Each structure stands twice: as structure tokens, then as C-alpha cells.
Amino acid sequence: MRNNGYSIPAIDDLDMACFYHDKCFKGFLADNRSCNAAFLIRLSPIVANNAWNTTKGAYARAAVALFSRFV
């Protein structure tokens, strides 16, 4: 089962990073380490260019904290 979030156009760079991760994601029981690693690479400039106290910066940092545990 795949995440269907990739069927809606992305609205910004964070949403696009999520789009590619959704498209790559193979399901919760599958090996998604390569998807998660690629996601972290896409998140890196978003984290660097958005302060922690902005919505985008907070969401990007939360995603890094979560997905860095699964690479």
C-alpha cells in the first residue's frame, strides 16, 4: 500500500520533498531506508533556509528528527 499524497501538486519545497518521499514509500513494513535518506537530503536546504520558529522550519526539523531514525 502506498501513500496517496503524491497525487496532489506540491505547493512549496517542503511539500515537494514530502511528495517525493510519498512517491517512494513502499509501506510501513517495507524497507524504506533509501526513501528516508533521499528525504533527509531534500530536507537539508529547507532546514538551513528556514528558522526553527517558522511553520516550515518546525515541520522540516520534525521530519528530520523522525526520519533520521529510519535510515
From TrEMBL:
Gene3D superfamilies, per database record: Phospholipase A2 domain
Biological processes per GO annotation: arachidonate secretion; phospholipid metabolic process
InterPro entries per the UniProt record, alphabetical: PLipase_A2_dom_sf
Q: Which GO terms describe its molecular function?
A: phospholipase A2 activity
Instruction: Tell me the protein's name.
Output: Phospholipase
